[in-house]
Amino acid sequence: MCAENAMSKRMAGIFSLPLCHVASSQHPLDNISKVPDEKWEIVWVSGEPKDPNYFFVAENKSRSLYALIIRGSVICKGVFTQWDVFVDWILEDMNAELVYWPFYDKEQNTSGDDLPCIGAGAYIAFTTMMKAKNKLPLGHNQLLHDFLIEKTGGMNNKELIIAGHSLGGNMAKVYSSYYREMLRAQNKSADNITLCTFAAPASGNGAFATDLNNKIDGQIHYQNTNDIVPHFPTYDGINAVSDLYNPSPAASEIIVEYNQKGEPVYLKQVLKGLAISFIQADYQQPEYDFLETFSAPLINKNSSSENDMKERFVESELNLWVDQAGAQHQMDVYARYGVGVKLPDFDPQILECNKKTLKAL
Questions:
Q1: Cα–Cα 20 to 30 A to 256, which of 180, 207, 316, 329?
Q2: Does residue 87 surpass a pLDDT of 50?
Q3: Domains in the chain and their CATH numbers?
């Protein structure tokens, strides 16, 4: 949905980030009722929360609003298994091989010189979304795109947010591109759609990004400049990551291994080499006008006060760098410093992790 014609993009973030938090929990069907100030109901669900790829559609009847929420990478312990972690991080997050993306606007891209492509891992997750059927008793076995078109694709004044955090945001972009083409095939408008992502990596090459830029006017992509994930896997972004967290924990001072000559190999060298390996793929993020960037404070290792945000790590060690990167990616950081909302409390394990992160900021 265009911001001028419907809700503001900021409101899309306020609505969808708490729902992303629900999707990351162990009991989404129960926790959806704990979202403050809004009454949401899950009306379509892909499966069980323990599934590596999990997503749902929630309805807010008072606002004539639906939201497709795609869960991000599995990072919490509990019901999740090591296989789930492998599926998310190796097969999807870390799989950067490009594959052809057929769901683009062929009327706009007629040259064929630069075909849209997305990451092979993203296509794996997209295939899962294509095959998924509603597991709720009401509307059982209905495919996702059939459900969305039925509920929001007509002249019923229903609005739709497609959103996700991290890998979920990556897939939100991919699915939005596909869904827009399905609407076009039925001569239906996409003006009621808002695409909203948090901490999402680039989904595809420049041609894919350009096609998506032209397809959906209502887009907002929240990016913490101190979060490494939105920088990946673009060439400029990975290079920027190599300079994050200076003066400490600085990637230029962190030894990750030793070469055959016994010389140290620094994290910055590794990241620079990784950036070069992605040049040909030409991964690109959405255009600048669709980005909402902010800079969360770095973790203060030595301070117990949330107000003391100027201290930096003293040690330049790999585990401190990783801790910093992990903290900057947390959903609570995006809630506090990006969107300006408070996430609901549930799942004690996740809550405790979030408290530790925010206390260090």
A1: 329
A2: no
A3: 9-231+283-305+327-348 (3.40.50.1820)
